[in-house]
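REQUEST ID: PR-0412
SUBMITTED BY: lab tech R.K.
PRIORITY: routine
TASK: structure prediction, single protein chain
INPUT:
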Amino acid sequence: MNLSYRVYYVFLRNVVSFKRFVLPTFVVSLGQPLFYLLTFGIGMGAYMGFLGGTSYLRFLVPGVLASSVMLSSTFECLFDTFVKMVHENLYDSVIATPVSAEDAVAGDIAFGTFRGLISGVLMLIVAGFMGILPVSLVNVALLVLLMIFVGILFGSMAMIVTSFAPNFDFFSYYTELIITPMLFFSGVFFPLDKFPAWMKILAEFLPLTHAVNLSRAIFSGQSSPGLLKDFLILLAMEIVAFYAGIKLMKRRLIK
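STATUS: complete
OUTPUT:
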């Protein structure tokens, strides 16, 4: 794979362009997690009581944090990448320079990860104002690392979808059939232990399930033997998705 330090320049170009939309992006990034926390955490939390000795709001926050990173990095590498590729022909201009196709795609995945990190940090700030914070500053740092890890994974998965997309409508299949169900079957809003056996098995194949498990463990400071499995599964998925995303996008860019 022809990756080089020029990935940084692609990422930097995206950051410079992003400066024009910082304020509306912050508002949008705050909107969804705040909606989830208010409706599920406070509204439903008043009826849910405690789960495993912890309040429903404290149970909810780590899951919403992971899902907000997933959504932001996904939509960046779906719609924004498609616009740059098809409507703006930006990729054609970039790869005409010493920047390789692999550098260009990896730079966009890195920026998608950055967008996911912004959403996750904003989510963490909102939770902090509501009195829900990780157990220590070390755990905050670990959560930031997890956000980066999750952003790369879902940004790479979105790149795979974008590499096949003929138009914007194509993304509806991925968002409606994969991303949205993943929100509800990965333990974000409810524990998985009461779900049917077949649903628990399905959840093991969903990357968000393992991201939520790690997020919840880091948030609470409680470890378990299963966390190593969660990390290794995420790592394997990330390596495969990153490699496939770059290869498939390169095949589309260079015909």
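NOTES: Residues 7-253 form one domain.
REVIEWED BY: pending
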